[in-house]
């Protein structure tokens, strides 16, 4: 048996399995292990860890733990500049996401904000992993086991149950506030909306819409027609604020 001391910082503490809450804490292991397995064994997926210090020195996930070390584990802090070379998470240059079956509403919000977000309400774990790899998307899921998969390079575990709060979390984590393109994508199918002349779709409009709106867009994927008022009604005020 070997034993190590661990300390988790910030909101990583919320992800720890019970029995690990009081930090720093000691953990006993049957033998040598990678620091990735050590950290994930405490409940924290590697996608949530931006810096590891082993006895004060930066380390990557493959570093072997042999016993006696003091391991400090830090989350992604947008407010704390870390030396770029030591960071384990990069902000991806693209903003393409893939959300699991439980994040339907978050997907709709991300699409409303203009972010390419794939979502299917029947996607299994294997489907998600395959699509993530093929389309190089950031995986969004609250399934820790799925995020712990070694092929998951970019991912995020929304902490909140609330979709509007989840939107804000994802925007902070991936630095998206400057990239918002409100109402440029179809919330139903992720299609990029295109402007359409009023006369082309006038037969499909309700009398009041016909009277009060002149600019329309249409989804090439599902054919849905949108106008300035169509998305905004009954939208959570926090989401509306992001979109404005
Ligand atoms: Zn559509």
Largest beta sheet: strand ordering: 2-1-7-4-5
- Helix content bin: 10-25%
Runs in which pLDDT lies below 50 for 5 or more consecutive residues are none
Average pLDDT: 93
How would you describe the overall organization of this protein?
This protein is of the alpha/beta class. The chain has three domains: 85 residues, Beta-grasp domain (Ubiquitin-like (UB roll), Roll); 84 residues; 42 residues, no CATH class. It is 24% helix and 22% strand. The protein is built from eight helices and 14 strands. The strands form four sheets. Strands 2-1-7-4-5 form a five-stranded mixed beta sheet, with no helix packed on it. A hairpin with a 6-residue loop joins strand 13 and strand 14. Helix 2 crosses helix 5. It is elongated, with a radius of gyration of 22 Å. The N and C termini lie far apart (56 Å). The mean pLDDT is 93. Bound molecules: zinc ion. Zinc ion binds next to loops.
């Amino acid at each position: 048996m070997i034993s190590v001391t661990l300390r988790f910082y910030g909101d990583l503490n919320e992800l720890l399995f019970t029995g690990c809450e009081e930090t720093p804490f000691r953990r006993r292991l049957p033998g040598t292990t990678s620091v990735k397995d050590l950290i994930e064994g405490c409940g924290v997926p590697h996608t949530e860890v931006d810096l590891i210090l082993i006895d004060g020195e930066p380390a990557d996930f493959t570093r072997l733990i042999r016993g006696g070390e003091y391991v400090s584990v830090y989350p992604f802090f947008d407010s704390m500049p870390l030396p770029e070379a030591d960071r384990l998470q990069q902000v991806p240059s693209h903003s393409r996401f893939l959300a699991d079956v439980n994040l339907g509403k978050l997907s709709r919000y991300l699409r409303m904000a203009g972010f390419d977000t794939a979502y299917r309400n029947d996607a299994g774990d294997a489907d998600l992993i395959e699509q993530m790899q093929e389309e190089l998307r950031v995986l969004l899921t609250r399934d820790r086991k799925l995020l712990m998969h070694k092929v998951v390079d970019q991912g995020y575990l929304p902490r909140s149950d609330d979709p509007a709060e989840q939107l804000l979390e994802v925007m902070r984590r991936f630095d998206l506030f400057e990239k918002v393109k409100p109402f440029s994508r179809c919330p139903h199918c992720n299609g990029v909306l295109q402007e359409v002349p009023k006369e082309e779709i006038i037969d499909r409009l309700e009398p009041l819409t016909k009277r009060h709106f002149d600019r329309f867009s249409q989804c090439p994927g599902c054919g849905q027609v949108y106008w300035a008022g169509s998305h905004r009604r009954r939208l959570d005020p926090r989401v509306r604020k992001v979109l404005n």
